[in-house]
Design brief:
The chain is mainly alpha-helical and about 475 residues long. It starts with a helix and ends in a 47-residue tail after the last helix. It is built from 14 helices and 7 strands. Helix 1 packs across helix 2 (about 55-70), helix 1 (about 1-45) runs antiparallel to helix 3 and helix 6 (about 185-215) runs antiparallel to helix 11 (about 300-320). It has helices spanning about 1-45, 55-70, 90-110, 120-145, 150-175, 185-215, 215-225, 230-240, 245-255, 295-300, 300-320, 325-350, 365-390, 420-430, and strands at about 75, 85, 260, 265-270, 270-275, 290, 360. About 60% of the residues lie in helices and about 5% in strands. The chain has a 5-stranded antiparallel sheet. The longest helix has about 45 residues, at about 1-45.
């Protein structure tokens, strides 16, 4: 009985945690849609000549929210009366809903909060994604009655994939970001991340440089499109929302395939081919000029080159202790992983802007992804092997220097014999020196030869300091 009670309590706790995670996913979807709705309604209120009422503004916000998830929209209010597709995803507004899903999944499995029951990682992923997709389905149905209805095919494909990817990243982060057990897989993921960051940063630099170079044309396009202050603010917000798209376009341009500017027009570092159908927009003023490309266009190739070298350097340093085969496999895995991400970003950053010639606009996803893989294999793989070989080199051991033997002491110089003239002078000088006086007085006989009891100290005075007094013979006694 006790076992059944505990089991029921555990099941009840997990069910409550699953329901809570589902509600949290729905709240995350509502927060993202509400934030975009606030911005659109604020722009509608500030517009001096609104084309529609509050319902139109809400339909526009719903369409932008779906577009941020990769769902294509269909424009029904065209001049020709024919529906026109709209499939370019503004990447900056897409950050907010994806971050909300990621944060919700991470906080649901937060190990710091041990007071409430938590679902399993798979249960949290399913519950959060399910709650989010329920709200998304409501928004899709609501958009069908507005001027920008959602394309149901892309809504059924892209929307679940994007939500599951963001929620999966949150679950992975909550579990401590575990990497695969094999060293090559972990090194491949790190290398792919390093290469992607370098590639996108270089693309942003390229786009910013080109926009600054064509600042006059961009300003003229901006002033021609926006007349009132509210229109200028809205256009400025749209330009900021599309800045990440410009970075992806520039990265695809440097990779080699370039991007399409309408059906039959292609811009690559080699030049601009075809007749581009460019609508008036400030960011499009930074496009390369017509004709063959020169050294400024060819310099864009430095971006994927540096990104591939960074990828190889990361892989080579991560697998420096292993075999060359492991380094090569990790470099190949990093190249394929980076190519897959580049393909996804290129597919989201490009797409149709309308019908006819505007049906193909932006980079082609499979061409950009294949070019990223080729750069990773052709440059990243040799760079990884070179970095590994450099890290495994054996440093040369310097032999200790043998100390130099001490120098022998210098021999004293031999004195030369004095010359005859000098010898005579020396002899004369020695003769002129007076002989020392005899301390025992004059007349003292030093010749003691023949004296058998000779002792040297018997003949010396007791004290050298006092003068010797002469001895008087004893007087004979008187009779």
């Amino acid at each position: 009985m006790t076992h059944l009670t505990e089991h029921s309590l555990v099941q009840g706790g997990r069910s409550a945690a699953f329901a809570t995670a589902c509600v949290r996913g729905g709240v995350a979807a509502g927060l993202g849609a509400g934030a975009l709705a606030v911005l659109v309604i604020a722009a509608w209120i500030g517009s001096p000549h609104p084309d529609s009422g509050a319902g139109g503004a809400l339909h526009l916000a719903a369409g932008l929210w779906l577009l941020a998830h990769g769902v294509d929209l269909v424009r029904t209010d065209t001049l020709s009366g024919l529906p026109a597709p709209l499939g370019i995803v503004p990447l900056l507004p897409a950050v907010l809903p994806l971050w909300l899903v990621f944060r919700t999944a991470r906080s649901t499995l937060d190990p710091a909060d041990a007071t409430r029951p938590r679902p399993s990682p798979a249960g949290a992923l399913g519950a959060i994604s399910g709650g989010y997709l329920l709200v998304a389905a409501v928004i899709v149905v609501y958009s069908e009655s507005g001027p920008l209805p959602a394309d149901l095919v892309t809504a059924g494909l892209w929307l679940p994939g994007v939500v599951l990817g963001a929620a999966g990243a949150g679950v992975w982060t909550a579990l401590g970001r575990p990497l695969p057990g094999r060293e090559e897989a972990a090194a491949a993921l790190r290398g792919a991340g390093t290469g992607l960051v370098t590639l996108l940063a270089g693309g942003a630099v390229l786009a910013g440089t080109s926009l600054a170079w064509h600042a006059g044309a961009a300003r003229a396009s901006y002033e021609g499109l926006a007349g009132e202050w509210s229109g200028r603010v809205t256009l400025a917000l749209l330009v900021v929302a599309l800045l990440p798209n410009a970075a992806v376009w520039a990265a695809a341009y440097g990779l080699g395939p370039g991007f399409a500017l309408g059906t039959g027009a292609l811009a690559t570092p080699l030049g601009l081919v075809g007749d581009p159908a460019v609508p008036p927009f400030p960011l499009l003023a930074a496009l390369p000029p017509d004709g063959r490309g020169g050294w400024p266009q060819w310099a864009a190739v430095a971006v994927p080159l540096v990104a591939a070298v960074a990828l190889g350097r990361s892989v080579g340093r991560s697998t420096g202790t292993g075999r060359a085969r492991e380094t090569a496999l990790a470099a190949l895995g990093a190249a394929w992983a980076s190519g897959a991400v580049v393909a996804v970003l290129a597919g989201a950053a490009g797409g149709p802007l309308g019908s006819g010639r505007l049906l193909a606009f932006g980079p082609v996803w499979w061409q950009a992804g294949a070019a990223a893989v080729l750069w990773g294999v052709g440059v990243g793989l040799p760079a990884a092997l070179a970095v590994r070989a450099w890290g495994r080199r054996v440093p040369r051991v310097r032999k200790p220097r043998t100390p130099k033997p001490p120098k022998p002491p210098k021999r004293p110089k031999r004195r030369k014999a004095p010359e005859p003239a000098l010898a005579g002078a020396v002899t004369g000088a020695q003769a002129a020196v007076p002989e020392p006086e005899d301390p025992l007085g004059p007349g003292f006989d030093f010749s003691l030869e023949g004296d058998e009891g000779y002792e040297p100290y018997d003949y010396l005075p007791a004290s050298w300091e006092t003068p010797q007094t002469p001895q008087t013979p004893p007087t004979p006694p008187t009779p």
